[in-house]
Amino acid sequence: MAIKNSLTFLAGLALFMLMSDAGAWTLVYANDATGKLTYGNLIALREAAKQGANIKVSLNDSSVMPCQELAIGTDYVTCMYTTGISTDYVFPGTTFGFADDAYYGYYMLNTKGQVAISRWSVGEHVDKGKTLFTRAIKWFVE
Predict the structure, then answer these.
(1) Backbone torsions φ then ψ of 18, nearest 5 degrees
(2) Could you give the CA distance from residue 20 to residue 51 in angstroms, rounded to a whole number?
(3) Which residues pair with 47 in a beta bridge?
């Protein structure tokens, strides 16, 4: 019980320190593609999410998205981002602009390294497919 109380205290202290510098984004958690912790503390991320902190995620340092909804479990946090639209400039060597056959992308990412994307045609409501894969993900708190 003393260890659990100590961990809760440390998580609260970390949350206080993170939120005391409003406007600054701080890396609090990172996982590899297998979901293995590579940086930070899941308890601090969970507590920040419970307190309503703004959270962003970064996939392989190539894209950053704000979490619009969060699901908080005992051993995970899931971020949902629902305003993505396909572009041509996401990957190195590609052109700048929107994709010719643009689609909306709805993303779910979690601290286990899982990423799910559901794609839908713009204006047609046609399912363009779903993808499930794993990625290294960095979790930032404002």
Answers:
(1) -65, -40
(2) 13
(3) none
